[in-house]
């Protein structure tokens, strides 16, 4: 899944890591002849790549990013109170992750492009909602659930944190 580069940092070994808008990081080494990324070795080269898409394999695997904290949750819904907006395809905004928690019953969670998957979520389990990926829910009979929203833990100057 393509995600935009929003910054860079050095890892503990001194290798460059691209910070992606989803919250994941991906190494961007220049090691010819196997990896040819000459733009990595200069400040200007890295700055020129800001906003460019990079494939995020961790999003493809629906892996939760590090350093995120819960900041809001919905009320508890059931099969009659599930909002129409959750039943039709929608997406969270850039940088916002979420989890659906089923308390009782079962809920069908359908993910659109580019993932194209469906999960039956049952009690005491949760599923990951990736930022900007279309999805919807369908109660599978009587159900009780809520959605919890997560974002990058705020630091004093982190302009990438969604509101």
Give the topology string: H per helix, E per strand.
EEEHEHEEHEEEE
Structural class: mainly beta
Poorly predicted runs are 157-163
Question: Quick one: CATH superfamily of the largest domain?
Answer: Jelly Rolls
In one word, what is the shape?
Answer: elongated
Question: In CATH, what is the class of the largest domain?
Answer: Mainly Beta
β-strand number: 10
Number of domains: 2
Helix content: under 10%
Note the gap between the termini.
23 Å
On the 0-100 scale, what is the average pLDDT? 92
Number of discrete helical segments: 3
Task: Offer a quick outline of the entry.
The protein has 163 residues and is mainly beta.
Which terms summarize this structure?
163 residues; mainly beta; 3 helices
What does this entry look like structurally?
The protein has helices at 43-49, 57-60, 84-87, and strands at 2-10, 16-20, 25-27, 53-55, 68-73, 77-78, 97-111, 117-121, 125-129, 135-152. By secondary structure, the protein is mainly beta. The strands form 2 sheets. Strands 5, 6, 7, 8, 9 and 10 form a 6-stranded antiparallel sheet that branches. The two termini are 23 Å apart.
């Amino acid at each position: 899944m393509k995600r935009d580069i929003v910054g860079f940092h050095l890892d503990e070994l001194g290798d460059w890591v691209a910070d992606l808008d989803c919250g994941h990081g991906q190494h961007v080494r220049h090691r010819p002849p196997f990896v040819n990324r000459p733009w990595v070795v200069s400040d200007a080269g890295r700055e020129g790549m800001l906003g460019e898409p990079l494939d995020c394999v961790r999003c493809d695997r629906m892996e939760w990013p590090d350093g995120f904290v819960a900041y809001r949750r919905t009320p508890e819904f059931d099969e009659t109170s599930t909002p129409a907006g959750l039943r039709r395809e929608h997406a969270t905004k850039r940088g916002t992750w979420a989890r659906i928690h089923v308390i009782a019953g079962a809920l069908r969670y359908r993910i659109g492009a580019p993932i194209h998957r469906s999960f039956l979520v049952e009690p005491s389990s949760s599923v990951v909602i990736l930022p900007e990926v279309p999805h919807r829910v369908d109660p599978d009979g009587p159900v009780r659930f809520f959605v919890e929203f997560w974002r990058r833990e705020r630091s004093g100057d982190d302009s990438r944190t969604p509101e």
